[in-house]
Amino acid sequence: MAFPDVFNTHFGKYVEDFIMWLTINYDFFFDGIKAGILKFMIFINKGLMLIPWFVVIALIFWAAWKLIDLKSGIIFSIMLFLIGSFDYWEPMMTTLAIVLTSVIISLLIGIPVGIFISYKKRAEKIAMPILDAMQTMPSFVYLLPAIMFFGLGLVPAVFATTIYALPPVIRLTNLAIHSVSKEMVEASNSFGASKWQTLMKVEIPQAMPTIMAGINQTTMMAMAMVVISSMIGARGLGLSVLTSINRIDIAMGVEAGTCVVFMAIIIDRLTQAFADRYKYE
Fold first, then answer.
1. Can you give the pTM of this predicted structure?
2. Which long-range contacts (CB under 8 A, 24 or more apart) does 118-127 make?
């Protein structure tokens, strides 16, 4: 038996109308955001492209050696060399610029929000269902408002990636502040420290390992969005993967996909190792 049409709320239509209203009445606001994000991302991309390939490989080797071990440094260097040998060095840098821009924006928004909701119970109760919805929403859905607000290209890709990658850093920052020992906070207060001093000198240092885990998760989610965001005009490795699918080009797909995997492994291992080294003792 079919569900009666009289109860159909057409919820999606209201959301679409709201987004259209925003784009019509606040186009200057979105144009400003678009110009700012594009300028910042181009700056990062040009900066990355200025670094010679052998210097990048040497830096990754040194970082992996110091943070993990010599074997990881050699393996990561070989991975980067293979990416260059596949002729995907420039797309890799573009992908890295998209990921870095999205992660930086996510951290600038996510860490303050996480701290704020850890202090405000009511705000936490409102934020948690929103974060649940953001994490369970199919990632393709984020592309629609990104296109409506910013059109096609790199900026909507960064916007969609940021929204997709934002929840972990908010959740884990909130959890990290909650997990700080109450005795330590009370001791800080009893010595006359202000709320700001207690936050900066006691709570954040104690919470840093968990916050770093959130940064790692956010980075990996941004990396996972790279291929999907290529559907709205983002360049980089994601576009090569998408092109290989459209052309059924197995060779291109294998090489581009391998490059994405190599990048994900290197970023994940290095950020995890950095988080471990950053533990407060």
1. 0.83
2. 118/173, 118/174, 118/177, 118/178, 119/177, 124/174, 127/170, 127/174
Residue type, 216: N
CA 36 to each of CA 40, 144, 161, 186: distance values in angstroms, whole numbers, following the listed order: 6, 21, 16, 42
pLDDT one-digit tens code per residue, 153-177: 778 888 888 888 888 889 989 888 8
Helix axes 121-136, 89-119, angle to 10 degrees: 150
pLDDT at 42 over 90: no
Q: Lowest-confidence range among 6-10, 116-120, 176-180?
A: 6-10
Residue with tokens 């390992």: 209
Residue 280 pLDDT grade (very low, low, confident, very high; cuts 50, 70, 90): low
Instruction: Retrieve residue 159's tokens.
Output: 């916007």
Give 181 or 60, the one with higher predicted confidence: 60
Encode pLDDT of 235-257 as tens digits: 778 888 888 888 888 888 888 88
Distance, first Cα to last Cα, the chain: 63
160's tokens: 């969609």
Rg (CA), the chain: 22
For residue 91, give the nearest of 270, 272, 243 by alpha carbon.
243
**DSSP per residue over 58-115, as a string?**
HHHHHHHHHHT-HHHHHHHHHHHHHHHHTT-HHHHHHHHHHHHHHHHHHHHHHHHHHH
